[in-house]
Amino acid sequence: MSISGTMTGLSICVRFLLRRNWVRLLLWAAVLAVMIPVVYNSQQQIFPTQADRDAYAQVANNPAVAAMTGLPYAAGSLGGILVIKIWMTLAVALGFASIFLVTRNGRADEEEGRTELLRSSALGRHAYSVANYAVAGALSVVTGLLISLLCLEVDLPAAGSWAMGASIAGTGLAFVAVGALCGQLSSTSRGANSLGVVVLAVFYFIRAGADLQANGTEASPLSWFSPIGWAQTMRPFGQDTWWPLAPLVLLALVGCAVALRIETHRDLGMGLLPERRGPATATAFLVQPVGLVLRLQRGSLVGWLAGAAVVGLFFGGVGQAMSDAIDPSNPYAKAFVGDSATVLQGVMGLLVLFNGLLAGAFAVQCLAGARAEEASGRLESQLSGALSRSRWLFAQMLVAAAGSAAMLLLGGWLMGASSQGAATGGELAAASLAYWPAVLLMLGVLLFLHGFLPRLSVSLSWAVYGISVLVAMFGSLFSLSEAAIKATPFGAVPRMPVADFALMPLVVLLLIAVVLAALGVWRFRTRDIVTE
Predict the structure, then answer these.
(1) Cβ count near 288 (within 10 Å)
(2) What digits encode the pLDDT tens for the residues 273-315?
(3) Contact call for residues 76 and 58 (beta carbons, < 8 A)
């Protein structure tokens, strides 16, 4: 078949995907872009004079900043401060959006049989995939353009403003390719999403390790093993270097081309990674609701647990080095590590928080499978027998809750065990488990939305999670009060071992989670099944 033949109906597919996803696209672009004026206005109040910015530049160059937000190369300017505060958050968030969007319109549709239905007409073999990649790429470009325009709106330098938007857009484009390749490797949307998240996390940690090894503000060569590191090298409001955008765009084009090549040679519905044929008859455990959910989530659960283990070992290994390099009198470092008795305690508390955030992401992604089962129509066949709605939903909830607890314990214990005497495995496992009520609250939010707003439940839950992460990690940098930070799920948890254990916040989080979950389950039992 000719190239033109494989692209037959491309424009129709683009219009279809835009119509189907316009709300998601609008929300992602608007939410990410609007962070520019919000953060910029807050930093104008904090650093009103050049003397304030120069003083900030003296304290911003430390490993805590490098590991979390990138190298502070222009911390003496308002543009450079904006990069420190928000660039990494926007770039990583757009990477997640690109992966999830490509998977939703690619592997998920193929898994549900919609792609086969579309191809049964005159639609070309690659038209739908190319349209998917184009729409996801357009999200990155439009988001980057909005970011640049809003930077110009607040009177930031034009060259830095355009480099800011382009660097973030380039990161999103690179992860369109990652999502495309993961969709070809895995035969399920869950597997593709999990694999994409793991790849993004690996690239983030490679970038963090490279910045920890930097010579001043000069990045380590290790950063070239991560597209996030490539995008950072553009240095908006600093050198404003444009050539790193070329490899990002090239990665997007080559990755999508390779994905299309794989699509040409594989069977529809199959992934490049082989799947073992299951037994002819189901075991007694598999016919139970929990057993079926575990079987469906097996690959995702194993991948997230492996990721938690890698993160725990990595953080435990770098915790001592980070604390040795941080000046305890540095006020900017204190924004990350808090007012702890020692810098080491503050660093370990920050890393434990990150472990809790990782478990929260797994929990949301895992329980989102319940909505996928309902949207696909498979839920109706499962409920056609003696299985009740409550029992089915409880099984979904149990796997997400238990899996997140296992991640917290595993990641915390390995972090302590590899911390070179900074803490014990038991101490950090307990500190990590303290975030479980916050994770359960995320599940409660998703269950509540699943009951009352099923079609928007997953998107809104990720939005709530993202805001919670942003406030818990960077709330102090945004000049938020301590009360505002503690009003969020992850910010409310005592950051041990920095802070003393407090039972009341955990009880409150747990009670709110139970109430939201109960309301969601009640509504789910009484409403109609809502498919796509």
Answers:
(1) 15
(2) 766 666 667 677 777 888 888 887 877 788 788 878 877 877 7
(3) no
